[in-house]
Amino acid sequence: KQWYQRRVRGVLTICVFLFTVASFFLTLWLRANYGIVQVSTTLTPTQYVRLVRRGVTAPSLLYSPQNFSIAESDRFCDSLNPSPPEKRHFVFLMIISSWENSLRRDYIRKTWATYHWFWQNPGLSYSYKFVISQPDPKRNYSVFPTDLDRDDVIISDLTEHYYLLDIKVMWGFSQILQHHNFDYILKCDDDTFVNLYRLPPKLLALTNTDYFYGGKVLETHNWANEGIRYAAGSGYVLSRKALCAVVLAHSVYSLETPRIPIEDAYTGLLNSRMGVKVTPLKGFATEHESCKDFTTVVFHHINMKLFPKLLHAAVNGTHFC
To answer: Comparing C-alpha atoms, which of 309, 289, 313, 298 is closest to residue 191?
Structure first.
């Protein structure tokens, strides 16, 4: 019996030792591969893995609920210095696209994303990136992208799937925060037409520029057992500080909040938790029902072949339908 007890204790000791060593090397691996420089001691290795799987590859400092606040968010935001140093843009456009949609991306490049007529104020500038994920191994693709090596495309390690869109968007947010300077970010989809001529005046007229979150306001009561007011994912705007708060809140609430696979509702939930209310922005349409009023900024569910026609209408101040 004593021999059996000693053997059990020995096996338990070895298991504890192996778990400690594995935890240590897992922490080093996460720091090396995901930019985690300092890690809260309140998180277990299992929680680290859960965070990484949910797209928390940034910020460089993971917060626990005990030490997270708007003040911490501000300090994090102020500490970000993209390398190499980049010009500060007035607006950064994050365009969510699918791996196979290179033709849509080409239409956007040839129309609204690169047509510089709208910046009448030379002091304002903009930039953009397409965010895509890896191809789904369960799908048979008939079209293969031709633009994966372009500088305006960033590719996550996630798999393309609609129900991973919330993670993909958070990953894109974190990457853009780390590598680019801007005052506002506009998130939109690759089936969206953005009338950039109308966007700067709306943002310049804002009074609350620190923690701004706005777009076409929707509401749901179906997630996280609470009502969420949020901006439709077809196109919404966040100030830089509001974006910092969202990314940091994601790193905290990923551990304690039921996952919301609808990215725009999830972004609204995170803003709500941080005390940032969504502001209605006129001209942000979820469909192209406002095509006769070209004060519209965002048109959603647009066939890419209509982009040139929409661009012509925007340039000439006319409607397209």
So the answer is: 298
Q: Where are the alpha helices (DSSP H) in the chain?
A: 2-34, 45-53, 70-79, 102-110, 165-179, 199-204, 240-253, 263-273, 307-316
CB-based contact 164:130 (threshold 8 Å):
no
Tracing tokens 């869109």 back to the chain, one arrives at 165
Which tens digits make up the pLDDT trace of 89-116? 899 999 999 999 999 999 999 988 877 6
Going by C-alpha positions, the residue among 126, 145, 137 that lies closest to residue 161 is 137
Q: Quick one: how far is CA 300 from the chain centroid?
A: 18
SS3 115: coil
Respond yes or no on whether the N-terminal peptide bond of residue 308 is cis (omega within 30° of 0). Answer: no
Cβ neighbours around 31 below 10 Å, total: 14
Cβ proximity of 157 and 134 under 8 Å: yes
Residue 157 and residue 176: Cα distance in Å, rounded? 16
Which among 274, 217, 228 is positioned nearest to 251, based on CA atoms? Answer: 274
pLDDT of 19 above 50: yes
d(CA 170, CA 139): 24
Nearest to residue 20, comparing CAs of 45, 50, 53, 51?
A: 45
What is the Cα gyration radius of the chain? 22
Under a CB-based contact definition with an 8 Å cutoff, are residues 291 and 319 in contact?
A: yes
Q: Cα-flanking dihedrals φ and ψ of residue 298, to 5°?
A: -125, 125
Cross-strand pairs, 291:
none
Q: Which of 1, 62, 53 is nearest to 31 (CA)?
A: 62
Beta strands 213-223 and 298-299 are: unpaired
CA distance 133 to 115: 26
pTM over 0.85: no
Inform me whether the pLDDT recorded for 224 exceeds 80.
no
Distance CA 125, CA 310 (A): 22
3-class SS of residue 196: coil
- pLDDT score recorded for residue 255: 59
CB 235 within 8 A of CB 186: yes
